Amino acid sequence: MGNATSAAYGTRRLLPRPPRIPLPDRLPHLLPELALLVAVQAVYKYGRKVANGHTEEAFHHADHVWSFERAVHLPSEHSVQQLLLHSHTLVHTANYLYATVHFPAMLLFLGYMFVRRRAHYLWIRRAIVIQTMLALLGHLLFPLAPPRMLPGDGMIDTAAVYGPAVYGKPETHSMANQFAAMPSLHVGWALAIAVGLIASHRSRWRWLWLLHPLLTMLVVVGTANHYWLDCIIGSLLLGLALSLVPGPTPGLSPTDSHPWVWPLRREPPRQGAAAPRGERSLLRRAVSVLGGAWGHLPGEALGENCASSPPPAGGPGGASRAEVRGRTELPLSDGGDPRHVRG
Description:
The protein is mainly α. 55% of the residues lie in helices and 0% in strands. The chain has 13 helices and no strands. The chain has helices at residues 2-14, 30-51, 55-71, 77-84, 88-100, 102-116, 118-141, 158-162, 185-200, 211-222, 228-244, 277-294, 321-328. Helix 7 (118-141) crosses helix 11. The longest helix has 24 residues, at 118-141.
């Protein structure tokens, strides 16, 4: 019986344990983040639908915006579109960028920031949520017809003429509210992406990300989907949102501090709390090995405070760590019983 036990013990020592693959710390927080972003998008879409239907008011506001821009000598949106119409390829490209880049670019940006730039992700995600909700207030309080619908400005709907088209005939009960031009989240989100990437990197080339909101602004204006003022207000909303949220902190996770935009906050573990089960099992094995080497440290000494208590500097009689390590590596003797290991 003793030989069988010794053989089994020796087999356990010879066969390596299969490696454990630790789960990244970011995985427990992924589902709450996705739930929050989906909820924000759903509220925004529903709010746009509620804001739909104010056709007469939207055209009235469009006349005022067009007159205000001419009064402050902003360049005409018509001149930008005329430059775009010189090339069919350019028009098709602009329509394609307007139809396909806006939402996928934001998803890719948030995913990258969540995986690679956690502290900056939390900072810019809070700002984007606030910016989006403020934009929804703009859609509700200030319905605005885009330039492509404004008669007499000389602009055309490039998507309807050249394709690909995003919108059909304006409908008052459609989820796609075409009278929500103010502010432009195309430009506002593009600027948020550029700001997040510039703030989270140190390369000298990081400032080139500002070309993204600049190109987006030329696209939305040239395709007659937004006015200059829409782009300016969308950018100012991001600045307001960034002034309301705390700046990025290195090592910060989505559950740390400032939870007012984080409704699904989990409390961090308290100092001195019991270690997780996997960590406790590892500590028990380590204490058992050291206890067998020292001869007086019991294997059951692992209590609730062992996770935070460091081992003594030396073994019995002032032995050093190297001596203790050497004792644990000696071959088994006296019939293979580990209790008879001697220094």
